[in-house]
Amino acid sequence: MHLSMSDAEMLSKDGPYLEYILIQSRPLEKGFRFTHQKMNAGMLPHEAAQLITDNMQSDPHIRRLRLLASEPALVGDQPGFKLVYSYQDQYGVTIKTIYYGVVFPHMFFNMRFSAAQRHYFDKELPSFNKVLNSLRFVSAKYP
């Protein structure tokens, strides 16, 4: 499955409830849905990661959030962050996510892989890593 939106692309083999890769960009001035916090171009990767974590903790659809890792990471060739977390959805299914993010001067880029932890996460993780390792930013578009 492939769903293309104006600011995002979603890919899934078995359906987005079971597993998906989401590639997204958003303007820095756009506040986040649950905290209304905004990013800024001067944010360090760990500050942006904390903003994302705060927003997830405020999301009523995310239950039992467990932050498993928060660390610096190269995304494409840009300094960014990596979050690994799990949570339970409204049906009690444990979802595991790997979330990469980069703050650019005018936008925030993120790429995540989410899957039902049982069976689908380990099964589809190699596909996500292939997509992640193929990522390159075009410097003219992302100064």
Polypeptide structure, described:
This protein is α+β, with helices and mostly antiparallel strands. It has one domain (2-134): Protein Transport Mog1p, Chain A. Helix content is 22%, strand content 42%. It has helices at 45-57, 117-134; strands at residues 2-4, 8-11, 19-27, 63-75, 78-88, 94-103, 107-116. Strands 1-2-3-7-6-5-4 form a 7-stranded antiparallel beta sheet, with helices on both faces. The chain starts with a strand and ends in a 9-residue tail after the last helix. The mean pLDDT is 92.
Q: In brief, what are we looking at here?
A:
This protein is an alpha+beta fold.
List the helices and strands and how they pair.
Elements: E1 2-4, E2 8-11, E3 19-27, H1 45-57, E4 63-75, E5 78-88, E6 94-103, E7 107-116, H2 117-134
Q: Work out the strand percent.
A: 35-45%
Q: Can you write the helix and strand succession as a string?
A: EEEHEEEEH
* Stretches with pLDDT under 50, minimum 5 residues: none
Structural class: alpha+beta
Distance between the termini: 31 Å
Strand order of the largest sheet: 1-2-3-7-6-5-4
CATH class: Alpha Beta
Largest beta-sheet characterization: 7 strands, antiparallel
Query: What do we call the CATH topology?
Result: Protein Transport Mog1p, Chain A
Based on the structure, what is the oligomeric state of the protein chains?
A: single chain
How many extended strands? 7
Specify the CATH homologous superfamily. Mog1/PsbP, alpha/beta/alpha sandwich
The CATH architecture assignment turns out to be 3-Layer(aba) Sandwich
Whole-angstrom Rg? 15 Å
**What is the mean pLDDT?**
92
Number of helices: 2
In one word, what is the shape? globular
